[in-house]
Amino acid sequence: MAAVAMDLKFLPLDKNHALALFTWHYDPPYEGYNFSPTTIEDDLTYLLNPRNAFYAILNPDGELEGYCSFGTDGQVPGGSYPPGALDIGMGIRPDLTGQKRGVQYAQAVVQYGRACYGASILRVTIAAFNQRAQRVWQKLGFEPVGTFMKRGSQDQFLIMSRDYTNSTGLRSFIC
Fold first, then answer.
1. Considering only CA atoms, which of 104, 60, 112 is closest in space to residue 88?
2. What are the contacts of 137-143 at 24+ separation with CB within 8 A?
3. pLDDT tens sequence across 74-124
4. Is the pTM of this model over 0.85?
5. Planar angle of CA 29, 140, 25, nearest 5 degrees
């Protein structure tokens, strides 16, 4: 089913959207977010598995502008993830990054997660170098709750969360 928030529409990720993600190319220092051409078949299976809760983020014209996920996909091996929070993963089309629209995308994802998953505590894990993403989530009231090194690498990550228990203004969605 579809949901609309702030002129953005959420649909379960389909094969065409997933294949489009494989064409996205992020320039340094964000190249770690690029999909590898050697794992496309496995990545496609993973993205399309409903248990992984991937959604396409579409603009009003139906164009793919980003994607998001809810649940364990948003967790990075080596981090501490106590139960009770909904983890969010998110990616925006490379040509749309750096245009001061990150807050709009993140707010829409938060609203969708809160409404469709009944979540009051939301959590994101962000690469420590990605100051741009950290600023976006800070503007939405997310606060750092921990840092760690990704298991098997030297990559550092930051976990941020926000408790919406006493917040109002939740948008309604068809989930």
1. 112
2. 137/106, 139/103, 140/103, 140/106, 140/107, 140/110
3. 999 999 999 999 999 999 999 999 898 999 999 999 999 998 998 999 999
4. yes
5. 25
